[in-house]
């Protein structure tokens, strides 16, 4: 009896196995077509393997000798700064490798709260909340804040993370032409019927080097009762007199409601992102932002590195002045068009480079 059952089970499993294999073969075919289309479009992205620390001079697998690095977002050269590295080692020793938990269960350490307070102080805002990345910060903000009663108005060339974050929310969506204030005003007029109106823009558009006209945006927002959100990933740490970003650069710090930015570029270059703004907003994000609620806490070493990077910026504006001088020396038309990572490292100890 049992032998018959085994034989029947084996015969029944055979067609299922063949169907599964057929589905896998079909999947492989679909994927190969997609990959070939990417190659054909000339958009295939290859990864160079770096065998040294990040910096203006690096070693790359397959290349003899060192090469100059013109393409990192290591704007201030802090990713390999000895004090930043030491702070990460100290945090690793004191707080461990990680929390194995989300923040609200058992994943909040004093180092996280201290960093959030420091970020808020740096940006002159009420509060801040950490995320694993700024992509997560953008994914968490719009869905938690905006409802079907609200509207969001987005520059058409905003970063992919802003676009994806906006897609997740149920607010009415308006897209205005890049840096076109007349089009933004027309969209604001159209959006007057909604409860909240949020204008969303990058501060510095990394692909083209454009700086958002925040003075004009804030003026229109004030005129039409809107809030202003700025993604400062390619501005935090080096734009403005003290590196606070485009709102400082353009003198509208008190008119920008919400800032999202990253710890993974100028501020140590490891990972992590954040939202900073009004305290009630940050409190709401701690309750509703899904990337915050369902992601592990930022590793202590990353928090320690970022905290030290902020210390270096707040202690002196020498780092910001250094990148300004190097930008002028290279003769570029604006801050952001200086190729990312080109010799923009902060003053280092003798023999560091």
TrEMBL record:
SUPFAM superfamilies recorded: PLP-dependent transferases
What superkingdom heads the lineage?
Answer: Eukaryota
Tell me, which GO biological process terms does this entry list?
Answer: L-threonine catabolic process
The UniProt entry, under InterPro entries, shows:
2am3keto_CoA_ligase (IPR011282), Aminotrans_II_pyridoxalP_BS (IPR001917), Aminotransferase_I/II_large (IPR004839), AON_synthase_class-II (IPR050087), PyrdxlP-dep_Trfase (IPR015424), PyrdxlP-dep_Trfase_major (IPR015421), PyrdxlP-dep_Trfase_small (IPR015422)
List the GO molecular function terms.
Answer: glycine C-acetyltransferase activity; ligase activity; pyridoxal phosphate binding
GO CC, any one term:
mitochondrion
Which cofactors must be present for this protein to function?
pyridoxal 5'-phosphate
Mind listing the UniProt keywords for this protein, alphabetically? Answer: Acyltransferase, Ligase, Pyridoxal phosphate, Transferase, Transit peptide
UniProt domain Aminotransferase class I/classII large: residue ranges: 67-330
Family the UniProt entry places it in: Belongs to the class-II pyridoxal-phosphate-dependent aminotransferase family.
* Name of this protein: 2-amino-3-ketobutyrate coenzyme A ligase, mitochondrial isoform X2
Q: Which gene encodes it?
A: GCAT
């Amino acid at each position: 009896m049992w032998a018959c059952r085994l034989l029947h089970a084996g015969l029944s499993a055979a067609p299922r196995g063949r169907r599964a294999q057929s589905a896998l073969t079909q999947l492989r075919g679909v994927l190969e077509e997609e990959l070939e289309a990417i190659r054909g479009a000339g958009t295939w992205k290859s990864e160079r393997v770096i065998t040294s620390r990040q910096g203006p001079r690096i070693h790359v697998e397959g290349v003899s000798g060192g090469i100059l690095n013109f393409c990192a977002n290591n704007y201030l050269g802090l990713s390999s700064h000895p004090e930043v590295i030491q702070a990460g080692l100290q945090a690793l020793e004191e707080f461990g490798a990680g929390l194995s938990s989300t923040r609200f269960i058992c994943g909040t350490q004093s180092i996280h709260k201290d960093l959030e307070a420091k970020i808020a102080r740096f940006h002159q805002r009420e509060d801040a909340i950490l995320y694993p990345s700024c992509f997560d910060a953008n994914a968490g903000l719009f869905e938690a804040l905006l409802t079907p009663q609200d509207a969001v108005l987005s520059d058409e060339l905003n970063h992919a993370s802003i676009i994806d974050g906006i897609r997740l929310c149920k607010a009415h969506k308006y897209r205005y032409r890049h840096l076109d204030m007349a089009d933004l005003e027309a969209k604001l007029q159209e959006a007057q019927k909604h409860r909240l109106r949020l204008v969303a823009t990058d501060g510095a558009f990394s692909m083209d080097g454009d700086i958002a006209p925040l003075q004009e945006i804030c003026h229109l927002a004030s005129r039409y009762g809107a809030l202003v959100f700025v993604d400062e990933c390619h501005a935090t740490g080096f734009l403005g007199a003290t590196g606070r970003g485009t709102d400082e650069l353009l003198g509208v710090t008190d008119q920008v409601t919400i800032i999202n930015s990253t710890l993974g570029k100028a501020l140590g270059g490891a990972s992590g992102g954040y939202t900073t703004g009004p305290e009630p907003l940050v409190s709401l994000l701690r309750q509703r932002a899904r990337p915050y609620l369902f992601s592990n806490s930022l590793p202590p070493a990353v928090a320690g590195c970022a905290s030290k990077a902020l210390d270096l910026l707040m202690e002196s504006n020498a780092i910001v002045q250094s990148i300004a001088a190097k930008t002028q020396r290279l003769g570029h038309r604006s801050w952001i068009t200086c190729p990312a990572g080109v010799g923009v490292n902060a003053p280092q100890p003798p023999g560091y480079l």
